[in-house]
Each structure stands twice: as structure tokens, then as C-alpha cells.
Amino acid sequence: MAEGTAKKQDAGADTQDLTDGFHLIIDALKLNGLNTIYGVPGIPITDFGRMAQAEGIRVLSFRHEQNAGYAAAIAGFLTKKPGVCLTVSAPGFLNGLTALAHATTNCFPMILISGSSEREIVDLQQGDYEEMDQLAIAKPLCKAAYRVLHAQDIGIGIARAIRSAVSGRPGGVYLDLPAKLFGQVMNAEAGKKSLVKVIDAAPAQIPAPDAIKRALDVLKGAKRPLIILGKGAAYAQADDAIRQFVEKSGVPFLPMSMAKGLLPDTHPQCAGAARSTVLKDSDVVMMIGARLNWLLSHGKGKTWGDAPKKFIQVDIEPKEMDSNVEIVAPVVGDIGSCVAALLNAMGSKWGVPPAEWTNAVKAKREENVAKMAPRLMNNNVPMDYHGALGVLRTIVKERPDAILVNEGANTLDLARGIIDMYKPRKRLDVGTWGIMGIGMGQAIAAAVETGKPVLAVEGDSAFGFSGMEVETICRYNLPVCIVIFNNNGIYRGTDVNKASSDPATTVFVVGARYDKMMEAFGGVGVNATSPDELKRAVNAAMDSGKPTLINAVIDPAAGSESGRIGNLNPQSALKKK
Ligand code: ADP
Ligand code: MG
């Protein structure tokens, strides 16, 4: 009997091999190499989770769907296969939806599969258990949304979901599975035939030779060129070609946050430590898998200086071109194909940019690095951000295979600048929205998908959004070390409310011991008050692979409002002093 089929005795003498919705979904996922599900069990998918586990799919049960969703989204980024998140109907679905929207915004392939209530009752609004028109609600928040009503359509439904998630610009897909579908029975042989193994899910998109020539002509004419690498470039897994291209061009490169490590941050062409200079002074900017959105000040304004600039953009999405400023040389295609074509067309006689420019960038970079160095070595108690991050910086240097997850305000901004990355896709963070709450979901998926140790550097506030998942980390015994930068509050722990006895809106319990949370579930908890203690605790955790949470006590007065993006906070002109 084929895998996933059930033998049903009919009333008569006939015996027929049957399968059902449960098994068809499981078989369709497995057939397409989707072997991990992140989710939360409940009606109507509890049995589905059990059966999927029994059939060899790894099913990770979370404490909240949003965290399972963030796990699925980052699994998509890390593997180029859609990460699968499974939720119950209405409330579970809505909890997963934030992550689906986040995946779409970040161009990560993900499939949110939610069970739903009975269509007949939902559509007549007769008040079913968890009644909600989930498909309609999901649609504007994802790249594509589908519903499967009949068991024989499961194969096609899952194939469409996979293609939609990974082809072209990747994104989130919603798949609606009504409760009744799971139990629908059909002939096993016909069921097997109805499944689709998706061939070439993300077809190469070859750039036009004209576009390649145009881009290289513009780059060649530059006096002060700059390459910006974005997380699309990291996603593409074209690491060798990108490195060769950047090195052959001789152009300084600036990695966006999640593109750090594509080439090491210590590479001689890295302009990370000279960011404001290169953005301001460059005359030609080539974007590879990065968008000119708010994270790059939309390609204009003070950040970019007054000198005229030409932009080259390499991206799979044609509509991205000219979205914020004119792109004089659009190169549309997948990054692997585009970079290979660029390399090929550069030929053997490609000159390097003027030394005046590359030396100026190098000088600025060395100046900034030297300025920072002594601050990173301070041993202050209570710790400030620099003292604590100086320690973590060394640990990541010594353990370049570890995956760094990072969220918070100051904890994010400062860690991004201070901690050098050495390998691709090792830095995972808040992404395009600057979202808080990705921490534990990303840490779990990073450990599960890569088998590598994970270091999650978390602001105390950011951690709170997903903190209950420390139980999940302990339950699956994952090699995750969480460091909480505990400064007693959001941005700082020093605000005072003068109007009532309530605490100020941005402060938390003073002296909280987050390490005790980990101990509650059998993990290792450490309270670290000095850089030395922090260093010892993190190294021990990374060596042992035991789930660990280190409460790093940070000076509550350290840190600034909203980190580096305080300018985005509107201020009232009428504010009482
Ligand atoms: P960052 O935030 O690092 O600047 P963005 O998320 O803004 O990066 O940009 C990523 C870009 O990469 C998106 O415009 C997306 O269309 C593009 N992209 C994603 N995957 C690929 C790929 N395989 N080939 C080409 N472009 C890609
Ligand atoms: Mg804080």
C-alpha cells in the first residue's frame, strides 16, 4: 500500500485503497521537499500536525502563531524554499498574518496554511465556530492567496502556492484549507496522480545583453562608484559570483543589514564604516538586490548629498525601477544570472576606479574604526552598549558560522554597526519594516534550518514580543543563546511619569531577571553585569549548545530615543516641558 493511504473496508466485498485530504496535503508537501512546518496546533489542524509528524515532516509547535510565522518567513530567506506556517482558523490565522505580510514586504518566500470554517456557513454569516472570510482578508497582504475545496485539487493548490512564493520576486502566499477538506476521501491511485511535483519553481530570469552593457558603461564612466548589496543579493545564493564581481570591479561596497557577510565586513573594499561618506560623495551607485526605500532615504535628500548621481539597479522586479529616483541602467533578472552576465561582459581589461576615491573611502573607514575601537574595549559596570557589543563582536569573529539574530532599537542599530559578519546569511534581523518581535521565531528557524549555533542579541523590549518561545527553544533543545540587553525599558529605562503613580510608558520593571525565564523551562540562565561575565557566559553557551538566556544588565541611561531613527517620531509643538 502506498505511503499515506488508508485501507477502507466497504460494506460489500470490495476493498479499495483510499486516501484523504490529510494525507494528500502531507504527500504534496513532501513531494516538493517541504519537510518542515512551523505552527500552532488547534481546530481544525490538530490531527494534521500529528499525522504530518508521523509521516516524517518536522513539525515545530510554537506558543504563538506570529512567531511560527516569522520562523517560516526566515526559513524561506535562508533556504530559497517557501517556509511553511500552519495555523488554526480566524484568531490563529490573524496571528499568522503579520508574519505573512512581513514575508511579502521583505521578499521572503513563505506559505501560510490556515484551517478555516465551513464555507456555506461563513458565506451566509451564520456564526460558525471562528467564522471569518480568511481568503478575502489575506489577499491584500500577500503575493497570492488560494483556497482548496476538493481533495483532488490539493496537488494543484500546493503547486500554485509554491510557484507563487518563489518565482519572480519572492513573497508570502496564503493557502486556505476548510475543515471539511481534510477528511475528504478519494481513490488513492487517483490521489497520487493528482499531486504535482513543481519543476523549476523559480526559473532563471536572464537579463537582456543591452541592459548589461548599459550598466557596465555607466559603471565604467564613474569617478566615485559605489555598490550597495541588499538582502535580495544574500537571498539569491550567488555568493561566489557576487564576490568575484565586486572584487573585479574594485568598487567600494556597502552591505545592507542582512547582506552583511556576503563579502566579509573586514574586506578591503567594504565601505560599511564609511557609510555616510560613500552615500554622500559617490557619483554612480549600483544597487544589487536592495531597494531605495526609507532605509536608504529613498535615494535623495541630505543623506545623498548635492552632487548629481546615477543609479544602476539589479533586481528581479521590473516595477522596482524608478520607484523613488530615476534608474539610468535597470538590469532586470535574477541576481545569479545578472551578476554572471556582468562578470562575463566585463572582459579581461576592466579598470579599477580612481585611486583618489578608493583611498578616500579607505581613509574614512580606518578613521571611523579607530575612533570606535577604544569604546568597544571598555569594561564599565553597569555595562554600556559598546562594552557589551565589543565582547559579542569578538565572539562572532571567533565563531563566523554562528547565526546572529538581532532586534531592538539601540541594541539593533549599534550591533549592526559594531558586529562584523564574515559569511553570507548569518545576520538576521528586523528587515524592511524594522519590525519588533522577529527574535525567537528567527532564532528557532535558524537553528532548525541550518543546524548552526544561534546568538540572538535582543533589546529587553523587543524580546518581550516573542519571549514565551523560550519554552519552545528548551522543548526542542535548540542551540540558541539569547542575550537580553536589559536597560529596564524601551529606548531607556529612565523615563518618569509626573502625572500619576503609574510608571512612564517606556519603562519596565526595574532590575528584571529575564534569565529566570529560561531556568523555568530547564535551560541555562545567567545574569551578567560586566563585559567579562558576558563573554564567559556566551562562550559557554556556544560551546555547550544548551538553550541559554543571558540577562545583560545595561546602564538604564544608555541609549537614545528610537535608536538611530528618532527623526521618524512626530513631535507635538504643544508638548509641555
Ligand atoms: P535591503 O533591505 O537589504 O536593502 P530589500 O529587501 O530592500 O533589501 O531589497 C531586496 C530586493 O531584492 C527586492 O527588490 C527584490 O525584488 C530583490 N530580489 C529578491 N530576490 C532576488 C533574486 N533572486 N534576484 C534578483 N532580485 C531579487
Ligand atoms: Mg531596552
CATH superfamily of the largest domain: Thiamin diphosphate (ThDP)-binding fold, Pyr/PP domains
- Bin the strand percentage: 15-25%
Distance between the termini: 77 Å
- Whole-number mean pLDDT: 95
| Helix content, binned percent | 25-40%
- Please state the overall shape, judged from the principal axes of the Cα atoms: globular
Q: What ligands can be seen in this structure?
A: adenosine-5'-diphosphate, magnesium ion
| The CATH architecture of the largest domain | 3-Layer(aba) Sandwich
CATH topology of the largest domain: Rossmann fold
Largest sheet: 6 strands, parallel
Domain count: 3
Q: How many β-strand runs?
A: 20
Strand order of the largest sheet: 4-3-5-6-8-7
Q: How big is the Rg?
A: 25 Å
Helix/strand-derived category reads: alpha/beta
Low-confidence parts: 8-13
By DSSP (H or I, 4+ residues per run), the number of helices equals: 22
CATH class of the largest domain: Alpha Beta
Give your account of this protein's structure:
The protein is α/β, with parallel strands linked by helices and 577 residues long. It folds into three domains: 189 residues, Thiamin diphosphate (ThDP)-binding fold, Pyr/PP domains (Rossmann fold), CATH 3.40.50.970; 154 residues, Rossmann fold (3-Layer(aba) Sandwich), CATH 3.40.50; 177 residues, 3-Layer(aba) Sandwich (Rossmann fold). The protein is 38% helix and 17% strand. It contains 22 helices and 20 strands. The strands form four sheets. Strands 4-3-5-6-8-7 form a six-stranded parallel β-sheet, with helices on both faces. A six-stranded parallel β-sheet has the order 16-15-17-18-20-19, with helices on both faces. A five-stranded parallel β-sheet has the order 11-10-12-13-14, with helices on both faces. A hairpin with a 5-residue loop joins strand 1 and strand 2. Helix 3 crosses helix 18. 51% of the residues are buried. About 1% of the residues have low confidence. The structure holds adenosine-5'-diphosphate and magnesium ion.
